[in-house]
Amino acid sequence: MKHIHIIGLGLIGGSFALAIRKAFPEIHISGFDKNDQHLEEAKYLGLIDEAVESPPVETDIVLLATPVDTLAQLLQELLEKVSAETLIIDLGSTKARLCQSLADHPKRAQFLAGHPIAGTEYSGPRAAKEDLLNGKVFIICEMEKTDVHLKGKAYELFEALNLKLRFMDPQEHDLHLAFVSHLSHISSFMLGKTVMDKMEDERHIFDMAGSGFASTVRLAKSSPEMWTPIIKENKEFVLEALGSYIAKLKNLEENIKGNDFEAVSRQLQAVAPLKEILDLK
Question: pTM, whole model, 2 decimals?
Answer without folding.
Answer: 0.90
